[in-house]
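Example: McrC family protein.
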Amino acid sequence: MIELPEHRDVDHRTPTISLEEQQTMADRLGNRLTVTWLSDHRVNIRSSSWVGTIRLTQDLRVRVVPKLAGDSLGVLTMLAITDGSALADLPQYFRGLSDNPSEDAIELLCRLVVTHTEKVLAHGLIRNYRSHSDDLPFLRGRLDAYRQATAHFGKFTEFACDYNEFDRDTADNHLLLAGARAARRAAANARVRRRAADLERRLADVAPTIPDMRGLIRTKFVYGRRNAHYQVAHTWCRSLLELGRLEDQDNAAESPQVQTFLIDMNALFEKFIEWLVGRVYPRGFDVQTQRRNRSLITVNGRHRNPIAPDIVVLQGSQSAAIDAKYKKYDDWDLAPSDLYQLLLYAQCYTGFTAVPTSYLIYPSSRRRSSPIAVELTVPSEHGARKVRVHAIGIPLAEVMNGLRVGDEEPLRWTEEMLRAELPMAAEDAVVG
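Written out as structure tokens, the predicted fold is:
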């Protein structure tokens, strides 16, 4: 097992594979991991912002560990928050789970899926009504006249029936089954795989019909007295299915058996900042996410090349852009690509201040008192014009560690700091 943090590289000695297999591996990995095969049976591996585990060959397995979010449990806390979990409920999500340094975020997530799904089965699976269609030798429910006329015309031995079935083959249980199946395939720990396989077998006996996976993940569940005990397990199952990426490989034995199960920290951090900024702004401000604007850039007079900041804050005719960047800007200068992007946003969304300003939020390893300000001065005959980028670091790891154990003080400090730094954030901001 090779272990390295985000945005690092390492050399390792391993048997070389063929050029064709190297190209196939590169195509499957994309920008998630860069693998460069060197001479003398060595390979250079460079990580990006994707964390989790990757099996490159039968003998070569790579683990990318999170740093900016604190640790693997910090990543899981972000997953729970962005899934809509209430802050007061977070401690119970991790109850009985210690941070094992030998387990990465995916391994811990698999263990959480298995543990909480077992608790649901111990409490009892719920039944519900579901629509069902079948051809029966007797009439049940409502007769489907069209199907009866087209499929069984002139027959009186079969009836096309539509009726409601009251059983456990419901979406609540489908999500548990899909999560257990994913955990069985993704977990490295043999005991967790065995527990997941047992859950999969038991759930498949009572809820065998899994609908389209994308539709299942997007299903909105309403939790009440009957299904409240499902909520925690659903959160972890949905996180494993939605943010993890499991790839089945059916290659020949001589091909590299590349398997990845990774979390995109860029996308996860953006979702978290959307949640955080939504808590900071008071009523009267319209906070929009991924707002595409096609009217700002033209090519030969035609509107093209839309821009889409992560967040646009609007009030009346005023607006400001906010971007989330999962980068270690505590120690690095702002990347030129990010700087140019934010300077463009500052000119397109002129903000609420005298100098048009856009805002960048990044994870910091400590509480900062002085944000980074970068200004661009544009000379003109009528005097210089300025635009500004305001970069703000938030103590992400400290916030995650606090919320996981029920301590909201780091979150409150972060919100107060953002109210002071972001444009027009009032003291009476509503905290959800």
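Confidence is low (pLDDT under 50) at residues 244-256, 425-432.
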